[in-house]
């Protein structure tokens, strides 16, 4: 059951400038656990997108889903720029989730 205390829009990647998956969740730490076990969305499992390279917290799940839908319309170049503005090395940011 979702906790609704870490609502976010996020992007996963398999490597720098590799495949990018965009999603949203009401409980990002739990969702990342699902992705790492290849449960849920097929795209991340198929392409090995297990690194959390960008996320943005939201007050409501509606806002997170709205942002996800907008990001999915963006050209790939814009997504790469968004990731690199915060995470130039495309490091896995999953550890930040434990810090809240």
From TrEMBL:
<protein>
    <submittedName>
        <fullName>GIY-YIG nuclease family protein</fullName>
    </submittedName>
</protein>
<comment type="similarity">
    <text>Belongs to the UPF0213 family.</text>
</comment>
<dbReference type="Pfam" id="PF01541">
    <property type="entry name" value="GIY-YIG"/>
</dbReference>
<feature type="domain" description="GIY-YIG">
    <location>
        <begin position="5"/>
        <end position="82"/>
    </location>
</feature>
<dbReference type="InterPro" id="IPR050190">
    <property type="entry name" value="UPF0213_domain"/>
</dbReference>
<dbReference type="InterPro" id="IPR000305">
    <property type="entry name" value="GIY-YIG_endonuc"/>
</dbReference>
<dbReference type="InterPro" id="IPR035901">
    <property type="entry name" value="GIY-YIG_endonuc_sf"/>
</dbReference>
